[in-house]
């Protein structure tokens, strides 16, 4: 007999969650819950080819070798927007997270990689521009 699985509500997964100014790793269930509540912008740091093979819905592509020159990256710092980073396994997104922290970006979270993502992937591009998506991010107000 298999163990019973009980779905956990996003609010329950985030009950003890707190944004941190220091870089932090976040488990993927919490990351998914945070995305459901629009509490962060999602950035994929893989290559264009990897992204096109399948990515997390709503993810914006900023490849590792291009992210520091990305024309909209400054918007994250300007707004102190919480950022969820991911790649294939979590290594590249971890490097980017620590580099961005050294550059003064806040509320950076590494959620690992798509290899272990349980919530499905898509090939669809985000429907909103990066700037529009940033406008819609509403950090969990009592969590700062």
Description:
By secondary structure, the protein is of the alpha/beta class. The chain has one domain: 3-Layer(aba) Sandwich (Oxidized Rhodanese, domain 1). It is built from 6 helices and 5 strands. A 5-stranded parallel sheet has the order 1-5-4-2-3, sandwiched between helices. The protein is globular and about 35 Å long. The N terminus is likely disordered.
Question: Which SSEs are present, and which pair or pack?
Answer:
Elements (H helix, E strand, L loop, with lengths): L9 H4 L10 E2 L2 H9 L4 E4 L3 H6 L6 E2 L11 H7 L3 E5 L3 H12 L5 E6 L16 H7 L8
In short:
With about 140 residues, the chain is of the alpha/beta class.
Gap from first CA to last CA: 43 Å
The CATH superfamily is Rhodanese-like domain
- Which second-level CATH architecture applies? 3-Layer(aba) Sandwich
Percentage of helical residues?
25-40%
CATH class annotation: Alpha Beta
One letter per element, helices H and strands E, the order comes to HEHEHEHEHEH
Strand order of the largest sheet: 1-5-4-2-3
pLDDT < 50 runs, ≥5 residues: 1-6
Which structural category fits the helices and strands?
A: alpha/beta
| Total number of beta strands | 5
Assembly form of the protein? single chain
| Gross geometry | globular
The average pLDDT score comes to: 90
Strand residues, percent: 5-15%
Tally of contiguous helical segments:
6
And the CATH topology?
Oxidized Rhodanese, domain 1
Major β-sheet, in short? 5 strands, parallel
């Amino acid at each position: 007999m298999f163990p019973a699985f009980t779905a956990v509500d996003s609010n329950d997964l985030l009950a003890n969650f707190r944004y941190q100014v220091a870089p932090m790793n976040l488990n993927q269930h919490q990351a998914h819950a945070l995305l459901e509540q629009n509490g962060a912008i999602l950035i994929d740091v893989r290559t264009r080819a990897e992204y096109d093979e399948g990515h997390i819905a709503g993810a914006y592509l900023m490849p590792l070798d291009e992210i520091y020159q990305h024309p909209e990256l400054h918007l994250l710092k300007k707004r102190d927007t919480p950022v969820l980073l991911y790649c294939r396994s979590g290594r590249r997104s971890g490097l980017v997270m620590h580099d961005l922290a050294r550059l003064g970006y806040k509320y950076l979270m590494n959620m690992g990689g798509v290899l272990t993502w349980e919530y499905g992937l898509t090939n669809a591009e985000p429907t909103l521009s990066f700037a529009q998506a940033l406008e819609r991010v509403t950090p969990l107000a009592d969590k700062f």
